[in-house]
Amino acid sequence: MLPEYYDFQVRSRIVAGPGTASSFGNELERFKAERAFIVTDEVVRGLGFLDRIEESLTAAGLETAGVFDEVPPNSEFGVVMRGAEACREAGGDLLVAVGGGSVLDTAKGMNIVLSLGGEIADYQGFGLINEPLGPLVAVPTTAGTGSEVTGYSVIRDEATESKQTLVSPYLASDLAVLDPELTLSMPPGLTASTGLDALSHAVEAYLSTNWRPVSDALALHASRLIAEWLPRAVESGDDIEARYWMLTAACEAGMAFSSAMVGCVHAMAHAVGGLYEVPHGLANAILLAPGMEYNLPVAEGRLADLARAFGLEPTGDASRDARAAVDFVRGFVARVGLPTRLREAGVPEEGLERIAEAACVDAAVYTNPREATPEELLEVLKKAY
Ligand SMILES: [Fe+2]
Hints:
The protein has about 375 residues and is of the alpha/beta class. Helix content is about 50%, strand content about 10%.
């Protein structure tokens, strides 16, 4: 079956390689900026990575106007507003985000408020950000979200205890700096959970009703890389080759789902994160195999393709191969040391119904290949509990 029509876009220029964080100064001239404002968190700041970034800024003749390091692991609207105010006061004219998904998404939110004014809560939903924003450089320190290249920012609205998705192609960074050295110090648990977020992007983009040939290519390649390299990145954190391929895979999966979008796994993960503040990667890790299993009746062929991408031998029977892809992911999550049950992530059993209801109104669920009802997702959640 061919898609009737498709579009595909990547706005971000990508520069990649070990050591790139301290040597991307020559990439900054085109922004005609003078005062960089750095967005990060305390952990990243403590690791000394900002020194490398400042080397690049200095080489480009930029001053550092200020640093906002107050981004929490699950960022919120209030944090975005505080960060934007800090940047405004400091007179920053180029945002440089250095961190994981929460930091990158916060900087994207700040960029909206700084460029267009108003409150971040005003920009929830589709079609509200239709013009270029100020320049944004994204330097990921985890290999998971791919947020450096996506047109999404997912931020918790503390007023409604829900994760809100801001959407616009203009949200993607202008420059993504992929330096695997910055991911070397991630502990095994964070390496595994962020890696499973990337795998969820690849798998869900591939199964999405909004699939397109270009995102398929990226999603399958990312799936292959993650199956091959994530266990090694978890076991030997200082393996630069494993870190390099994981950072590449996360970025590829990000490009894939930025156009193809995701599905019920992310819809449920957003609900779990919004209501119980379970880290996004962990929620996806637990829900990926159950979500794939739910989609089995409508996505055998595509799940069988994924089995091949995971390195499994085709049996000639698509439904057996599809089932093998689900089993592979379930085993893979355990193999990289992550919990496979929602109860282990601190989710109360009586919360499952609310999660199912929230998931069914999450933007991610609309491109799931099997149309989901709250009752059906509740069954999936119970199985994952
Ligand atoms: Fe995600």
